[in-house]
Amino acid sequence: MTSPLSVDQWQLFLQIAECGSLTDTAAARDVAQSAISRQLGAIERSCGGKLFERTARGVRLNEIGQRLYPRVQAWVQAGQLLTEDATGMLREPAGLVRLGIIDSLADALCGPIHDELKHLFPKIRLHLVSGMSGRVSACLERGELDIALFSENTRGRSGRGDGIARMPHVLISAPGDPLTAAETVPFDQLDGIPLVVPGRPYAFHNVLEHWATRRGIHLNIQLECDSLHLQKKRVGAGGLYAIVGMSAVREDVARWELQAARIVQPSLDRDIVLRLSPHAAPTQACQAVDDVVRRHVKAVLPTLTTWLPEGHRP
Fold it and tell me: What is the CATH number of domain 92-165+273-304?
């Protein structure tokens, strides 16, 4: 009966696949190439067949090896995370935490969150990802993030995660545009104006189309763009409008680079949601990061969702 492969043998399988060379793998492990060849032979015998193709330049995974690779990689990483979490339980939170934050809140939150974690939990390694809400939530659902902070439509809420605050949405334009000159703009005024919006799939499309149909207006989407920065650049150049969270443009409006009016009748408010990954139980490090993020969001959001005084409007 074949003995089960050890963790080190599976790690060697991954290392050979990544190096693409037995010679390079031997050099990385500071052992003779013959030793790596013998260990690879033992791995393949235990698996009942070849996992690599030998080439003139080294080795590469064959079809079976390619199918096996992502499963081995996920298993080894899960074991490393389990070890890190066990260490954290005995001592202090440690390990990698992947945190996603929507673009409109990233500037205000990423620095303070990182600074506090570095001070309180120096053994936590933080990997930050920012993007538009659809991208951040999709990364969480695919298991690419451990924690995500994003906005979600108040209609059709999934019910998972914590709704921390409500984010008003505004129509933005170039400075001096008469449509956004007042503090508010009725939704019906979006009829036919040239819009730039994020590309699909993006749940906010459904909200816009729902209200456009109910109000009998036409949404003139001229450009799809998944970058908040580029959206604001195109709008600031004139000729386009965008609908964004209020927090995304406060500083731009204060610098008179953009002009904005809150959308009303109906308002297009969205919930700010903090959610943990649905794919695995949170580690101790994840719980620590979640607590820090929650505290900073609750402290910052009231300021970011309050509109600028009249004197700061262009």
Answer: 3.40.190.10
